[in-house]
Design goal:
CATH superfamily of one domain: Cytochrome-c3 Hydrogenase, chain B
CATH class of one domain: Mainly Alpha
Largest sheet: 5 strands, antiparallel
Shape: globular
Radius of gyration: 22 Å
Length: 483
């Protein structure tokens, strides 16, 4: 790769696509004549018009249709849409069986998705180093070098998928959550099969956290400083401020942990959040309405889920949370790489919640649905594996959807990811020869957020990384391809 030292003129570097993330995106980095980074942007280059073509569908079809946005986190969209349609059919409170079945499905989804990210997508960078050869930064190399971690990667995720199948009818794109409830309960056979496995899953999640803490201890400066900056955070919390990944109200805190807003009904999200469009990305840029565009952006996801909550109601995860927040003296942890640590805390929490629910007899109940007074609007929020997810629909008198607005977790993190990209580009690329390893630093920052760039399926076949160096007029100077 050609160097970018002084005297070579302005340049533009393009990373297309960003790898080991869900969906497709690219990064553009502009350097001045001295080889210093002037601008870096993370572009979402896919367009999927679900908000448009869901219009005209019957409202009860939405929970099944809208989840086709994603093959990685469909349960999150399935449940968020079902919760929104609960509001449409006038239901404020589900039956105990329906509520707990949905929660069990959701904890299985967060468990399997967080396991997918931390083990399959992020661990190669953490285990082998950001500058390791590309052929080493993959799950196959992890399985060969670290078979115990490979076992966690396979079996924790498999367990989460089995929970989804037992509660949702199938592992991907479930069908059980319907407006006003659920269409089946948990069979005794499925319950007993999951009970036999859950203690081992909890133990493996705990071991994974201990292993990651070893990485943090051995790389304290990297963990603290890489792609790090101060920000606000947003997540759902329960009525007592505790972690609640399925339901609750919105809380926003600033970088010091002070409240910006709290206990906000998700139906009032527009009062507190506003979305902005920029011409170089299909992804919108939300920020907190009471603050400026420059000051009101925020982060969501596991880091926000742990920073925003006052407690976690499962013992192992709560002990891990207290140790985590002690890292920054009780103030919100700001390190971008701390997303991985927080993700493992959520992993443990979900495994513990699954165990609790598997021993709850309500899951074998037969009272599955309720109905209320029909309404024309449905708004719901859920904490997806990647963070706060909002679904908003209007429905006409013919039961057809007339409008839809989705603010997905990756949308909420859009500005934060762009800031991380620029931070790494300025610190690691300015004035240096641009190598494949250094470019991977940019991708590592993006991967920490576990973005689902389009909340969509992946392209078939290989996804090569193509880096093109152009002059100020856009003429290619050098190209490097990684298969």
């Amino acid at each position: 790769m050609s160097s970018v030292q002084a005297g070579q003129g302005p340049r533009k570097i393009v990373i297309d696509p960003v790898t080991r993330v869900e969906g497709h995106g690219k990064v553009t980095i502009r350097l001045n004549e001295s080889g210093e980074v002037e601008e870096a942007r993370f572009h979402i280059v896919e367009f999927r018009g679900f908000e448009r073509f869901i219009r005209g569908r019957m409202y009860w079809e939405v929970p099944v249709i809208i989840q086709r946005l994603c093959g990685i986190c469909p349960v999150s969209h399935h449940l968020a849409a079902a919760k929104a349609m609960d509001m449409v059919v006038g239901v404020g409170k589900l039956t105990p069986t329906a509520e707990k079945m949905r929660r069990l499905m959701h904890y299985g989804q967060v468990l399997q998705s967080n396991a997918l990210h931390i083990f399959h997508l992020a661990s190669p960078d953490l285990l082998f180093g950001f500058d390791a050869p590309p052929e080493q930064r993959n799950i196959i190399a992890v399985l060969n070098r670290y078979p115990e971690i490979g076992k966690w990667a396979i079996f924790i995720r498999k367990f989460g998928q089995e929970v989804i199948k037992a509660t949702g009818g199938r592992k991907i794109h479930p069908t059980s959550a319907i407006p006003g409830g659920i269409n089946h309960n948990l069979s005794v056979e499925d319950r007993d099969a999951l009970r036999k496995q859950v203690d081992q899953i909890i133990a493996w999640c705990g071991a994974a956290l201990q292993h990651h803490k070893g990485f943090v201890a051995a790389n304290q400066a990297l963990h603290r400083d890489f792609a790090s900056y101060r920000s606000n955070f947003v997540s759902l919390v329960g009525p007592d401020g505790g972690m609640d990944l399925y339901d609750g109200r919105l809380r926003a805190i600033d970088a010091e942990g002070a409240s910006i807003f709290d206990q906000v009904d998700p139906a009032d999200y527009r009062t507190h959040l506003i979305e902005e469009v920029r011409p170089w990305s299909y992804l919108k840029f939300p920020h907190i309405r009471s603050l400026s565009r420059e000051e009101g952006w925020y982060r969501v996801g596991p880091l926000a889920q742990v920073n925003c909550c006052a407690s976690i109601d499962t013992p192992l995860a709560e002990a891990a949370r207290q140790e985590f927040i002690a890292e920054n003296g009780g103030a919100p942890v700001q390190a971008t790489l701390a997303y991985h640590w927080a993700r493992l805390i959520c992993l443990i929490h979900c495994a513990e919640k699954i165990k609790q629910l598997l021993f709850d007899d309500d899951l074998q109940g037969t009272d599955l649905m309720v109905r209320g007074e029909r309404r024309g609007e449905g708004i719901a929020c859920i904490e997806a594996p990647r963070g706060t997810l909002i679904h908003h629909y209007t429905v006409d008198d013919n039961d057809q959807v007339t409008s839809a607005n989705l603010i997905v977790s990756t949308t909420n993190n859009n500005e934060a990811m762009n800031r991380a990209v620029k931070e790494v580009a300025m610190n690691d690329l300015s004035g240096h020869e641009i190598t494949e390893g250094l470019l991977n630093h940019v991708e590592v920052a993006i991967r920490a957020f576990d973005p689902c760039l389009s909340c969509a399926t992946h392209a078939l076949g290989q996804m090569p990384l193509v880096v093109t160096l152009e002059d100020a007029d856009g003429t290619p100077i050098a190209t490097r391809t990684r298969q």
